[in-house]
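PROTEIN–LIGAND DATA SHEET

This sheet pairs a single protein chain with one bound small molecule, adenosine-5'-triphosphate, given as SMILES. Inputs appear in the order they were entered. The predicted three-dimensional arrangement of chain and ligand is reported afterwards as a token string under its own label.
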Amino acid sequence: MSDSCGSCSSAQGGGCSGGGCAESPEELKLKKTLGRIKHKIVVMSGKGGVGKSTVATNIAVALSQAGKRVGLLDVDVHGPSVPRLLSLEGQQPHIGSEVIEPISWSRNLWVMSLGFMLPSKEDAVIWRGPVKMGLIKQFVQDVAWGDLDYLIVDCPPGTGDEPLSTLQTLGQDAHAVVVTTPQGVAVDDVRRSVSFVRQLGNPLVGIVENMSGFACPDCGAVHNIFNSGGGEELAKEMGTKFLGRIPIDPEVARSGDEGFPLVKVDHDSATAQAMNAVIKHMLDLADALQENKEMPKVDEVNSENGRVRIAIPVVQGQLCMHFGHCEQFAMVDVDSELKSIISTHFETPPPHEPGVIPAWCADQKVNLVIAGGMGAKAQSMFTDRGVRVITGAPSLEPEAVVKQYLDGSLVTGANTCDH
Ligand SMILES: Nc1ncnc2c1ncn2[C@@H]1O[C@H](COP(=O)(O)OP(=O)(O)OP(=O)(O)O)[C@@H](O)[C@H]1O
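PREDICTION REPORTED AS:
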């Protein structure tokens, strides 16, 4: 068995043929299911009770109201609350010999939750890690989700088995949304969640600050009774997007208790508008994927005997969102035929002056630059030297960015420096 086979599940199950790993029927089934889902969004939080399930449910409902085909998966094995939030308590999904039918909430929103499987809502679930991990995989692979525009996953809080298993099952193109409240402790926990997502190499959509200010039921205005802005500061510090603030609103709690998500029953209040502003970022993912289609494929980029050098500006070991302010460039050499990384080394660029870095990159035999933001002038200077440019890449470790680029899962957002 080759070294690279050692960690694969086929090898561990004894099914590796040695000349390349044959995928097990389960792995093929999972791949097929995931191949029919355009966007996977995992809603996480560092801490419990910050409104993660409320946000996940409202995202799913709002996307379905926008005409998208949506699946909502509640993998909070210790406190599944989605059935209550959608008035689906007591529903029983049909379990066939090969598939489980999700519960249909509307014409284009389907739901699966462990809550449907428990005999009563008082039942506690005491399962160890491997059982929970198996269950999460089964909920993705064995549920008849069909063709979806979005699968929204409500994860338990923290950075334990369930979020790990969820992201590993859904794959490297699953995006994370991290929910926090403005308080310091929650913000610290979120810092851990963001690092966790990055370590796994998954992209983040960004951070939502829930329970931020108070929406007065009498005058409709939002009052900042406690601190707010912690989530926004953290997003800035961690180089990710701030998706917006949602105030504390008694209507959110009431509509949740009654099983009608706020975005279904209210379109005009400050809170409904705040939620819709957050959801707009999920809708923008589709546009980003569209832009991605224009991305040059690795075999369309200039190369030297099939070896393409990709330069990524980095700061503190991760892609730097501002091209001109990077500390170093990671030079990642890839085999354009095998679509694999050959080697990575780091180079310190000369001081940033207009035109200097494009010339220096060309001297370093760079064929492609993948950056967060880059001005139009710099882009054309690269192009003039035969160096292709991709902008709007996420702030991840350089090899994680290149792996996503090579397997076609790199999702680019807005060019953060488009002057
Ligand atoms: N913006 C808000 N305004 C008022 N109440 C809210 C708001 N967001 C959430 N809540 C309420 O806070 C409580 C906790 O919310 P929710 O269950 O969504 O949190 P969670 O982070 O998913 O919790 P858990 O850690 O238990 O999974 C619920 O009663 C919910 O109705």
